[in-house]
């Protein structure tokens, strides 16, 4: 995938699909490519996380609107906003925690590295959330979101830093953050909003 900014929305989503496909077909090569890229947090957010979070949000809105007995626009909007805030808030919170943990695990402290690990390891969760928002009956495919742990491990494995077992523990922590924080935020907001 190229490191230049996409010219239009079509190119943005084409690059997004290529990156997601590469994470499935050849994740090791894709991580090497990502580590060679010099990108900012905002670029990763705008070219990867936000488009996927937006798709999940739209899918949640449409699904909630259609799957309810009555077309309650307000309730569908609340549900979509809740999903958007949970997923996007999880990116920022996970990024902050991972950036702080880099020093503890004896990695070179880098906000860019923390962002790459969090944002790109979240890809499977976004894709599965999108599919299950459209087809809620197949909720059991959330088990495939554990691929995020594998992506986190591959993202950490080739980075200079601590010994092998510390890298493994760190990748597990990243996976737990990427998988757990969106659900914790969603539960917290559901209890606050009482949808």
From TrEMBL:
Entry's transmembrane regions: 48-67, 79-98, 139-156, 168-193
GO cellular component: membrane
Keyword Translocase attributed: no
Domain (Yip1): residue spans on this chain: 24-180
Subcellular location: Membrane
Membrane topology: Multi-pass membrane protein
Keywords assigned by UniProt, alphabetized: Membrane, Transmembrane, Transmembrane helix
Protein name, UniProt field: Yip1 domain-containing protein
């Amino acid at each position: 995938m190229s490191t230049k900014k996409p010219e239009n929305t079509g190119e943005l989503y084409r690059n997004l699909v290529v990156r997601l496909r590469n994470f499935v077909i050849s994740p090791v090569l894709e991580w090497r490519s990502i580590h060679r890229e010099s990108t900012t947090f905002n670029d990763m957010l705008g070219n990867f996380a936000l488009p996927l979070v937006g798709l999940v949000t739209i899918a949640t809105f449409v699904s909630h609107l259609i799957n309810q007995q009555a077309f309650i626009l307000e309730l569908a909007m609340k549900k979509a906003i809740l999903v958007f805030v949970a997923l996007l808030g999880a990116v920022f919170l996970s990024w902050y925690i991972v950036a702080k943990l880099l020093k503890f695990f004896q990695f070179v402290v880098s906000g860019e590295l923390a962002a790459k690990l969090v944002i790109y390891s979240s890809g499977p969760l976004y894709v599965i959330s999108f599919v299950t928002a459209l087809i809620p009956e197949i909720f059991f495919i959330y088990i495939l979101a554990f691929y995020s742990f594998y992506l986190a491990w591959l993202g950490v494995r080739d980075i200079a830093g601590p010994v092998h077992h510390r890298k493994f523990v760190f990748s597990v922590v990243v996976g737990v953050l990427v998988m757990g924080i969106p659900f914790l935020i969603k539960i917290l907001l559901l209890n606050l909003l009482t949808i």
